[in-house]
Amino acid sequence: MTTPWDPTTPGVLRLPSGRLVRGRGLRNPLPDGPTPTFALYLLGREPTAVPWDSRWICWPDFWLPSDRAAAREALREAWERAPSERVEVACGGGRGRTGTALACLAVLDGVPNSEAVKYVREHYSKHAVETPWQRRYVTHFS
């Protein structure tokens, strides 16, 4: 079993179930310490290869995933892996797309859709989820 994230590490979100997921911006250097065992990258183009298991969701900046069914499947995989792995969710800046994905993980974890954005803004970043359509995506996520 993998050692989980340290919950005091910047960017680590604790979901109500206790699952820990790290959000981050890929334009920033990789933080010191443990690396992810699984990462979900939310970018408009395929990311550079990494030495850990990862999935890419085509998700242009400020928009929504290009393939919503694939995004839902990848988010569910990240949520399912989080209890026993160091899961990271990342986009360019670590706010809009990452915050939206983290809010969707919160929904999977039992947070009501209508409260998920607020939860992520309180526990991850006050700047999470940047656009009205990202908020609407979370509201309708299942």
TrEMBL record:
**Swiss Army Knife protein DSP-PTPase phosphatase domain: residues covered:** 84-117
Give the species: Nonomuraea pusilla
Pfam families associated with the record:
PTP-SAK
InterPro entries from the UniProt entry: Prot-tyrosine_phosphatase-like, PTP-SAK
Q: What protein name does the entry list?
A: Swiss Army Knife protein DSP-PTPase phosphatase domain-containing protein
Gene Ontology MF annotations: phosphatase activity
What keywords is this UniProt entry annotated with?
Hydrolase
Q: Which domain of life is it from?
A: Bacteria
